[in-house]
Every structure is written in C-alpha cells, then in structure tokens.
Amino acid sequence: MDEKLIQRLESAVSRLEALSAGFHPSASPAGGADAPDAALDPSVVAFADLIDQYVGRVSRAAEIIGGQVLEVTKLVQEAFVVQKELLIKLKHTQKPDLAGLAEFLKPLNEVIAKATALTEGRRSDFFNHLKAAADSLSALAWIAYTGKDCGMSMPIAHVEESWQMAEFYSNKVLVEYRNKDPNHVEWAKALKELYLPGLRDYVKSFHPLGPVWSPTGKIIAPSKASAPVAPAAPPPAPASLFSSESSQASSSKPKEGMSAVFQQISSGNVTSGLRKVKDDMKTKNRPDRTGVVGASEKESHASPRVFSKAGPPKFELQMGRKWVVENQIEKKDLVIKDCDAKQSVYIYGCKNSVLQIPGKVNNITIDKCTKMGVVFKDVVAACEIVNSNGVEVQCQGAAPTISVDNTSGCQLYLSKDSLEASITTAKSSEINVLVPGAEPDGDWVEHSLPQQYIHLFKDGHFETTSASHSGG
Questions:
Q1: Are 218 and 163 in contact (CB under 8 A)?
Q2: Is residue 22 packed enough to be buried (19+ CB in 10 Å), middle (13-18) or exposed (0-12)?
Q3: Helix 127-136 × helix 182-193 angle, to 10°
Q4: Residue-by-residue DSSP string for 174-213
Q5: Antiparallel, parallel or unpaired: β 351-367 and 445-448
Q6: Pairing of strands 445-448, 429-435
Q7: Which stretch of DSSP H or E encloses residue 3?
Q8: Could you give the 3-state DSSP secondary structure of residue 470?
C-alpha cells in the first residue's frame, strides 16, 4: 500500500515539474493562458490520479498478456488521456451548441472508433477482451451530458449503465480463464474497477450534474472541413452523442430510407416517379392470370445465394489447440474424435449440418450458423452461441456455463449432469431449454426462457421481472 502511495506522489510531482518547466507567460499555450491553471484544478488532478491508479493496473496486466489485449488496452489508456485533455479544455470553454459539442468530442470519438474497429471482422481468440474494452469506453460519454433534455442518463447512471453493457463480455473472460490464466482474470477485474468504483466515484465527486463549462471562455466553432476520407464507424452506444452534423446540416442532406418516404408523402407529389402501366402489363390481359412465379424461375434466383458468401469449408485442428469447423453445408456426419480438455472448438458459418463432439473440450463457440446441430459430451469453460438462427445444442455431460447472444431460435438439451449450468442470454429470442423428465424413460420437459421484461420503479430503484402471458 505504501509503494502505491509513493508512486502516486512521485507521479503528481513529476506532472507539476513538467507544468512549471513548460509554462512561459510570454508564450500563450494553444488552450489559452489559463490552461496551466486548469491542469492544476482539483478535478483534473483527481482524474490524473484515476489514470495512474486504475488504468495503470489494467495496463500492467495487459503487458503480461500482450497481443490484441495489450493493443486494445493502449486504446483504453489513450481514451482516458484524451478525456483528461477535454476536462482541461472545458475549464476555459463556454458551453457549446450541438455542433460545437460534436467538434469538442471529436478526439474522444476517434479513439473509441479505433477500439470498436478491433472487434469487427473475423472473431479472434480474444474477442471477449476486445468487446469488453471497446464497449466500456462508452462510459466516457458522460462528458457529453448537457441537461435532462439531452437524451442520455445523468453522468453517474450513464457510467453504471455503460459498464453493464461491457460486463457481459468481461464475465466471459473471467469464466474462460478462471482456472487457466490468472493474468486474464486480473485484467478483467482491473477493467471493472476502472469504471466501478473508479470512474463512477470520480464523476460522483466532481461532475454529478455534468461537466462545468466556463461562462466567460472561448466559443467552440464547428469545423468547416468535410468529413475524413475514411472514418471508422462510431460505436453503437454513443453514436448519437458524437454525431458531427448539426440539425441544420442534417436537414440539408438528402434523406434516406423511411425518412425519404415520409418526405415524399408530405410533399404531396407521391406519384411523380411511378411508371405508367400499359395494357399488356395488366393481369386481366395476361395469358396466365395466376400471377404466380414458376418454380424454375424462383429457383434460378434463389439457388445462387446459398453459397455466394460462404468461404472454403474447413475441418481442422490448428496449432494443436483449436478445432476450426467452418462453412460446412448439408453435412450431417461431422465428428471430432480426437480432442482433449485443453482444446477449444470454433464453429462458423455452417448450415443444415450436425457436429458431434464425444470427448471433453475446453470451450465451444457457435458463430453465424443456421439450422446447425451440435452434440457434445463435456465442456470445461463454456458453450457460446452467437449471431445464429435455428440452432440445436445438446449437452450429454456437464457444462458450467452456456451463453446465447444475438440469436433467434435456439433449443438447448441438458442432461442431468448439466442441470446446474448457468445460462446467460442477451439480445436473443425463442430460447427453449429441454430437461430430462422425472422418470428415467420419461419425455423431455420443455421450458421457454423469457424474452420480455417488466421494469417497475420502487423505493428508488428499478425492479425487473419477466413478463408472463396466460392463455384461456
């Protein structure tokens, strides 16, 4: 404990020395003459301590792990450093309008976009780390709170809600590496403590009602430059907060999608773009008055789509640690015979196929599969089903955790040894769990997991219960 206190004191002294050495009254810094004073503001100093204590702990764990975990952790550190610079800047800046706020938050948005880009594309072995870190950065959007009418929760609540979104993937890291690698466990725990209690307590102490702008500072003018050549996509959660267009600019752009439809209807000239129907095009004048598309014509349009986006099929063991089953179509006899508890299984892009895993493996992931059946014996860590449709999974042995994410239609068959499994669902529907009957030769008993919830505000907090529907 004493060593941590000494490190924090040394860090604070070095920052003070750097400020005193780099500040000359004759040369005004880019942020204005009050920038050094703003850097010594208690709220800014406290945020610097937050970076040293909490972000430093996450970084130390990531340096041991290395690879993509270290890469995304550096972006987390960069995002917090950018927010510290914004805290200094707002001390001598007037409260901006929507366009000015977007310009003010642009540096933070760019870092968040880079972190989000790491989670896109093909799913990596550290996807849960990347997703947890990238989703957690939306908590830094508390600085965009401008009042109760801005469309977002108050700063403290926003930090807590943002972490809940990231905690789903952080818990996956804890479950996967709980008995395998303590460094990953330390990283996940440190990431959580960075936000809860770290950032939450900081916001509660200094900005519970939002950032405090200077009443006499400079005004932020929105940039007149066009958008970047190839900007990264902003993360889903804070996208509305970091929009770079003002309401006036957005109204001048041509509308797309349903907005264009409603604009055309309101203009009154709805039929101007329609083509004239000639007599030979009318159904009553056609020789076949059914209007039904023939089977041959239908198949000619539908058949090429089945395999158009599928890559080459794979069924192989990579580096002795990971079984990869990809793009298997109409394969009902897939079997992984030689497997052990240290190996993982990754199933991607398979359709109308069945895979059997008779042995014990460490982890099973089913990603972007349609009408896929998987039968496995035992799993050490977890069985994950993501981005899939119409999947059936049967556990014949034990499985401590089963997670279903962004999936529509999933049948889970549990054995008696796996009835204590923890089942986690998110953004999913039509999830049914079948368990053995009371008698040895009895039928399966089906239970549907709720997908609708009722939230009631009582005694200062929300109570959530699943919605139940009773039919006559």
A1: no
A2: exposed
A3: 10
A4: HHHHTTT-HHHHHHHHHHHHIIIIIIHHHHHHH-TT----
A5: unpaired
A6: antiparallel
A7: helix 2-22
A8: coil
Q: What is the CA radius of gyration of the chain?
A: 28
Cβ–Cβ under 8 Å, residues 19 and 36: yes
Q: Is 17 exposed, middle or buried (0-12, 13-18, 19+ CB in 10 A)?
A: exposed
Element (H, E) at 146: none
* DSSP H or E stretch at residue 170: helix 155-177
10-residue mean pLDDT series, the chain (472 residues):
60 55 38 57 90 93 93 95 91 86 90 90 86 92 86 88 87 89 93 93 91 84 52 43 41 47 51 59 56 44 44 87 92 89 92 92 93 92 92 92 92 90 89 86 84 86 76 40
Tokens of 85: 């610079």
Structure tokens that stand for 302 in this block: 């539908």
Check if the beta carbon of residue 442 is closer than 8 Å to that of residue 463: no
> Residue 44 is which amino acid?
V
CA distances from 184 to 76, 163, 379 (A): 16, 18, 20
Q: What is the pLDDT of residue 453?
A: 82
Dist CA 416 CA 435 (whole Å): 8
Whether the CB-CB separation of 195 and 50 falls below 8 Å is answered with no
Query: Element (H or E) spanning 426, and its range?
Result: strand 422-426
In this structure, the chain runs to a length of 472
Q: Which of 335, 343, 394 is nearest to 402 (CA)?
A: 394
Quote the pLDDT of residue 78.
Answer: 95
Residues 6+ apart with CB under 8 A from 76: 55, 58, 115, 133, 136, 137, 191, 194
Q: What are phi and psi of 5, to 5 degrees?
A: -65, -40
Phi, psi of 363 (to 5 degrees): -150, 145
